[in-house]
Write a structure and sequence with these properties.
Helix content of chain B: 25-40%
Oligomer: heterodimer
Radius of gyration of chain B: 31 Å
Shape of chain A: globular
CATH superfamily of the largest domain in chain B: P-loop containing nucleotide triphosphate hydrolases
Helix content of chain A: 25-40%
Shape of chain B: globular
Radius of gyration of chain A: 27 Å
Largest interface: A-B, 52 and 68 residues
Mean pLDDT of chain A: 77
Strand order of the largest sheet of chain B: 17-16-22-13-14-21-18-19
Largest sheet of chain A: 5 strands, mixed
Number of helices of chain A: 14
Number of strands of chain A: 19
Strand content of chain A: 15-25%
CATH topology of the largest domain in chain B: Rossmann fold
Low-confidence stretches of chain A: 379-410, 432-437
CATH class of the largest domain in chain B: Alpha Beta
Low-confidence stretches of chain B: 50-56
Largest sheet of chain B: 8 strands, antiparallel
Chain lengths: ~450, ~850
């Protein structure tokens, strides 16, 4: 049974029984949903009637993370996650990962590794998790050919099961210990990386984090070896977005995960950063962000997406306002921080500045490269006057109702959503008589509306 | 040179009637700096301690190498008027000591922002014109700028030595040339006359025109000669002056003055007889070493040479004789008293300067140049200080006093009275004045003077208005208007990635140090420096690397020119559906009427106009329907750009609800057009019809904004999109034999000549041509090569010109440009097809 083998039904069942889980959520990514029924029935027969299985599909956020909210709906006590994963730590539920083994040609791959090692003294081998099963064997093969090469490092997988993290902080790693995307290794920062697997967010994550290292990708499916072009253009683009975020007045914090451990703390951190930078923040939970959803918040000048490392990077020009990662938000909003070339997509790498108070004494204007001049940076002192923003709303709507606000578009003085609302020409249902200008002939009778489905109304057929 | 202590200098600064703030303006290479040097040599104030120091106008190394001025430099001069000339002086004064603050400004068009900054803080201008080349394009530009600021001009016809030595023209011809130069200048000045400023034209017979030879260090006004002859002929000095210019002829045979040339061979124009010919004679004698003839003549003129000078021969002798006889400094300094004092000038300049109501106390203090009034100070530029990274804020005190330790309100260029934006309160750490090259701290500086301040540089980008801490009602002083704009851009990167913080810091400093340069960032994250021209950029980059980044290496891209996207004709009606398919927007795009985009650029039509006024202009000048003009939703990009959204719908439900979303989408789309993400220009988007979902939740911003953007792109692509490129107006002056070379280079660079005129009385031709900015890089070098250095172009941005080829076709010229832009910006190679934007029912 190739399918059962691939989905590791036996070991999964053993895991479930060993821990005595009784309600298990099986999380499938969309492309594997077709196999879900077969896998479930196989598991059911392996575990017996004492265990109930639930299929979880259409994940709220990225399918690489454990969807704890969906699991909570069925009151599951464990989640089995299938397919590509980011192995981000979980908050509440233990999870078991099945990476769907993909065969790896040990011999050809071993040759590739040996070749590279011969050229470069130091090489770090990273891989898509679906090849994890073959790595020990690969290591042995290579070791036989090139025995005891200290420059060659194989990353190890951090584990197939994740238990809820007690502490918010990352377990402190030794100085020479690295961990990224579910892989870990010992050694210094890599200078050359071999990636075994497909292109995808996992690889992008690695390349941005170790952006000074040269990366070679070996695709086991085609057997081809490609040298990856540097990510510097992506980094420079992010650098621009950071600069733009510095000019933002209103920041939307988009919650992009409800499962990765520490996300609440991360939201708090970003809120704190935004506040001490004298800006206003609003927290939004919209599921998977897309342009149409976020365009409903045109008052936001920039969004900060809090999500796992493999879904955090969104660069799509269709969005009305750019989306930043937490790390970038830190560069943009914490005064005195400068980009030095290092990069991280993991929000747990971002800590609040040790003393958030010291920024309040700064009232120096800041040079903005977007406008090409100095702009005043607002301080916490200024913020106090605006705590009474209730007045602002009233004043705003008053003035617009007598039509003094003729200009549209966001003025640079828009500091809060209330300001923005006040500057809109349409502010919701207008109760005054003048708002019923719709029909010019003075006909104000109620008329029958359209009928049918929204896509094609009856009168349009 | 005059040796002074800071205290002595400070003492004269209080005499507001005896101060003259003056800028020296001219076309490039007409001899401003040389002339200034001779003034400084004679009257420059230096600190007592550094008496041995010789070179005052110690220029930057690159200035010396290129032989042009790049940064304007300020120098203080001290001049004691003679009793004689004081007699003629009618205005208010306070003793006979005069303090003259002179600012020498660059003549190259690329640096005209420096001139603008200099003009703001001066009340008078010495306009220098080459007597052979005459009034040139840059003379005209700066003169207009000066008059616009209500700066009173005096003129000097320079390079007289060329007349005598190089061209050897006879008296009458020379007179005609000078007369034409003065007339040309007066034509420009006459248009700026107003009641308060009075007649601003210049007249030799009134002493407001000098004739100078800066290189040889001599100059005269008619006064010099009038004085001399008045005693000789026993006539009134004033009357003599009048006879020495214009249609006054003298016949030595009959010893009679006539107002017409009598035709007698001995009848000569007064100017020629009494001024031109004597000078010519002396020069000739000196050059020919006829010393036996020279000494008696000099004796007659009361000129005594030092013994060692008597040994000189030829040109050096001539120079020394002329310098002793007609010292340039005397003639030019004497003209100063025709210029207004701060007290006099501020009376009429207040209208130009002050933004607030002219009847408040700040306006009154400026008007009266009141040292006891509230402080009104305009910072016109930032000058790099010797300690790295710091800047002096340099400006002019218009009212009150600025003192060390004073707490000042700093109103930046974006300050709006009553708001807190761009407003800081800080203490002045030190007030400083320049004595030659040396800076001296002084306790305070009263109104009417220029001053440099330490400790404010973190709060001022380029310009600001300062007032007392307590004066919260004060309005700022009007921002300066520049005649050039930063159209040439390059991207800079550091060679070593870890130098990035250095680059960022360097760019901040560069932005401060130059009134015109703009440092921004491109969407691709590259740092962009924009300057007025190739030369300007070159200087900025040099400053950046050497001075502001401590020599860290940078990589500079090829110059980048920004294009604009427009449409050639009205598109068909296109429709796009919202993501939920429940809303449909129908748009059309059409080109704006000829001239409308320019009118919007100039602010003649804009978002803040009274709708009635706007619709009147649109109806009368651009043939719009009156009602339609009232239905303009917005301008863009940046809410004031030259593109429009017009509501053409009739009876659409909920239309007012989506207006904000459409406007937001339009600002976005007009900033990044569909072809190459360049700004749009001259497109009107017409909202033809809109079908919206009855349920408000389905027609929110999230549904409308992306859809409106798509439908605008679709309509742009359907309206035959075209690229617009920026075009320079080039002015070239060259002798006839160089014209062939000029035409050759222009042709090769897609330029076309619009005008070619010979300057009357000179062998020079003036060629005007249009030249695409993109072709202009290296243009001056090639031109110089093709004309063996005889032609020197001046380029000013003039207009946008349409590239006729289709940018959608990758084979055409426009298509190639689009491909380059897209590559640079990191976009997909091909333009997104229409089908991505337009939906079918």
């Amino acid at each position: 049974m190739a399918l059962l083998d691939r989905y590791e039904v036996a070991s999964t069942a053993a895991h479930i029984q060993q821990h005595g889980f009784s309600r298990v959520g099986l999380q499938f990514p969309d492309n594997l949903l077709a196999d879900s029924v077969a896998v479930t029935s196989a598991l059911q027969s392996a575990c017996g009637p004492g265990v109930r299985f639930f299929i979880m599909a259409d994940t709220t956020f990225g399918s690489c993370c454990v969807d704890e909210v969906a699991a909570a709906h069925v009151n599951a006590d464990c989640v089995v996650h299938y397919g590509p994963a980011c192995l981000s730590p979980v908050t509440n539920l233990p999870a078991y990962f099945v990476f769907l083994r993909t065969p790896l040609d040990i011999n050809t791959c071993g040759e590739v590794v040996a070749d590279l090692v011969a050229k470069d003294e130091r090489l770090l081998v990273l891989y898509d998790l679906e090849y994890a099963h073959a790595i020990p064997e690969l290591r042995e093969t290579v070791r036989q050919e090139a025995p005891e090469n200290s420059g060659l490092t194989f990353a190890e997988i951090i584990g197939r099961e994740l238990n809820p993290c007690k502490c918010d902080k990352e377990p402190i790693l030794d100085n020479d210990e690295h961990s990224i995307g579910g892989l870990k290794w010992k050694g210094s920062t890599p200078t050359k990386i071999l990636w075994i697997g497909k292109e995808g967010p996992a690889l992008i994550n690695v390349m941005l984090t170790y952006n000074s290292a040269a990366t070679v990708r070996y695709d086991p499916a085609s057997g081809e070896q490609t040298s990856m072009s540097s990510q510097s253009s992506t980094l420079w683009r992010r650098y621009y977005l950071i600069e733009r975020a510095k000019d933002a007045n209103i920041v939307g914090i988009v919650v992009g995960t409800l499962g990765v451990a520490g996300y609440k703390q991360a939201i708090q951190n970003v809120k704190q950063m935004v506040k001490s930078a004298g800006k206003k923040s609003y927290t939004l939970a919209v599921g998977k962000p897309n342009p149409a959803k976020l365009a409903n918040f045109p008052e936001c000048d920039v969004f900060v997406l809090i999500a796992c490392p493999q879904t955090a990077l969104v660069d799509n020009k269709e969005f009305f306002a750019p989306l930043l990662t937490t790390f970038e938000a830190q560069l943009a909003f914490v005064r005195g921080k400068q980009w030095t070339g290092s990069y991280s997509l993991d929000f747990r790498d971002v800590q609040l500045p040790a003393d958030p108070q010291d920024s309040t004494t700064e009232e120096e204007p800041r040079f903005s490269f977007i406008s090409g001049g100095y702009v005043s940076s607002r301080t916490a002192v200024d913020n106090k006057d605006e705590e009474s923003s209730g007045d602002l709303v009233l004043v705003g709507s008053d003035s617009s109702s007598i039509g003094t606000l003729s200009t549209v578009g966001k003025s640079p003085g828009t500091r809060t959503a209330a300001d923005f609302f006040a500057s809109r020409s349409f502010q919701g249902l207008e109760l005054e008589a003048k708002s019923t200008k719709v029909s010019k002939d003075g006909d104000l009778r109620a008329v029958t509306g359209r009928k049918g489905r929204a896509a094609v109304y009856e009168d349009e057929q | 040179m005059v040796k002074f202590t800071a205290e002595e200098l400070r003492r004269i600064m209080d005499k507001k009637h005896n101060i003259r703030n003056m800028s020296v303006i001219a076309h490039v290479d007409h001899g401003k700096s040389t002339l200034t040097d001779s003034l400084v040599a004679a009257a420059g104030i230096i600190a007592q301690e550094v008496a041995g120091d010789v070179r005052m106008t110690d220029t930057r190394q690159d200035e010396a190498e290129r032989g042009i001025t790049i940064k304007s430099t300020g120098i203080s001069l001290y001049y004691e008027m003679t009793e004689e000339s004081l007699k003629a002086f009618k205005g208010e004064r306070d003793g006979s000591e005069y303090l003259i603050n002179l600012i020498d400004s660059p003549g190259h068009v690329d640096f005209s922002s420096e001139v603008t900054a200099a003009l703001r803080i001066t009340d008078g201008a010495l306009v220098v014109v080459d007597c052979v080349e005459g009034v040139c394009v840059q003379t005209e530009t700066v003169l207009r700028q000066a008059l616009g600021e209500r700066i009173r001009p005096v003129l000097t016809v320079n390079k007289m030595d060329r007349c005598f030595l190089e061209l050897q023209v006879d008296g009458e011809e020379a007179y005609q040339t000078f007369q034409r130069v003065i007339e040309n200048a007066n034509v420009i000045m006459a248009t700026y006359e107003d009641a308060l400023l009075g007649d601003v034209q210049v007249y030799p017979e009134k002493g407001t025109v000098a004739f100078s030879a800066g290189l040889h260090g001599w100059a005269f006004t008619l006064t010099n000669f009038a004085k001399m002859y008045a005693s000789k002929f026993n006539v009134d000095e004033k009357k003599m002056m009048e006879r020495l210019w214009g249609e006054n002829f003298f016949d030595p045979a009959t010893k009679k003055w006539t107002s017409k040339n009598t035709g007698s061979p001995t009848c000569v124009r007064g100017f020629v007889q009494f001024i031109y010919n004597p000078i010519k004679q002396i020069i000739a004698i000196c050059m020919n070493d006829q010393k036996d003839k020279l000494w008696p003549m000099l004796q007659k003129l009361n000129v005594t040479l030092k013994n060692e000078d008597k040994e000189l021969v030829g040109k050096p002798l001539m120079k020394r004789v002329m310098q002793t006889w007609l010292p340039a400094s005397d003639a030019l300094l004497e003209m100063m008293y025709h210029l207004p004092s701060p007290a006099k000038a501020q009376r009429y300049r207040v209208e130009n300067l002050y933004e607030g109501p002219l009847d408040d106390k700040y306006a009154a203090a400026i008007r009266n140049c009141d040292p006891d009034g509230p402080l009104m100070l305009y910072v016109s530029k930032m000058i790099p200080a010797s300690d790295k990274g710091r800047f002096f804020a340099f400006g002019r005190v218009f009212a009150g006093k600025v003192s060390t330790g004073l707490k000042v309100r700093i109103m930046g260029p974006n300050y709006i009275p009553g708001q807190k934006k761009d407003l800081y309160v800080k203490s002045v750490q030190r007030t400083v004045i320049w004595m030659g090259k040396k800076q001296e701290s002084v306790e305070d500086v009263p109104c009417g003077n220029t001053v440099a301040m330490v400790g404010l540089d973190q709060f001022i980008t380029k310009n600001a208005t300062l007032t007392n801490d307590t004066e919260s009602d004060a309005h700022p002083i009007r921002a300066m208007k520049f005649s050039v704009s930063p159209v040439v851009r390059v991207a800079v990167q550091c060679k070593v990635a870890s130098d990035l913080p250095k680059l960022v810091e360097g760019l901040k400093r560069l932005a401060k140090s130059d009134p015109m340069v703009v440092c921004t960032m491109a969407e691709s994250g590259e740092h962009i420096i924009a300057g007025a021209g190739e030369l300007h950029l070159e200087i900025c980059l040099k400053d950046l690397q050497d001075d502001f980044m401590g020599g860290a290496e940078i990589k500079v891209s090829d110059p980048v020119v920004s294009f604009r996207e427009t449409v050639l004709e009205r598109s068909r009606q296109v429709m796009s559906k919202s993501p939920n398919k429940h809303n449909r927007l129908y748009f059309e795009a059409r080109p704006l009427e000829d001239g409308l985009a320019e009118a919007i650029d100039d602010g003649k039509v804009g978002p803040r106009d009274d709708p009635k006024v706007r619709s009147k202009i649109l109806a009368e000048e651009f043939g719009w329907d009156k009602d339609l003009a009232k239905k303009i939703w917005c301008f863009g990009p940046e809410t004031n750009g030259p593109n429009l959204v017009v509501d053409m719908c009739k009876g659409v439900q909920y239309l007012n609800e989506i207006k904000d979303s459409v406007v937001a989408a339009f600002q976005w789309a007009s900033k990044e057009g569909a072809v190459a993400e360049e700004n749009m220009r001259g497109i009107a988007f017409e909202v033809c019809d809109v079908v919206l979902h009855t349920d408000a939740i389905h027609r929110g911003g999230g549904q409308i904004i992306p859809t409106a953007r798509r439908v605008m792109y679709a309509s742009q692509l359907c309206g035959k999109p075209r690229l617009l490129e920026p075009v320079y107006l080039v002015e070239i002056q060259a002798p006839e034999q160089a014209l062939g070379g000029i035409y050759g280079v222009l042709n090769q660079k897609r330029g076309h000549v619009t005008e070619e005129v010979q300057r009357p009385g000179t062998p020079l031709y003036n060629v005007k041509a249009f030249l695409p900015v993109i072709e202009s890089f290296g243009f001056s070098t090639e031109l110089r090569a093709a004309t063996s250095g005889q032609a020197f172009p001046q380029c000013v941005f003039d207009h946008w010109d349409m590239l006729s080829s289709d940018p959608m076709d990758p084979g055409t010229q426009a298509g190639v440009i689009v491909a380059q832009i897209r590559k640079r910006k990191g976009l997909k190679d091909t333009i997104t097809p229409l089908s991505e934007y337009e939906d079918k029912l």
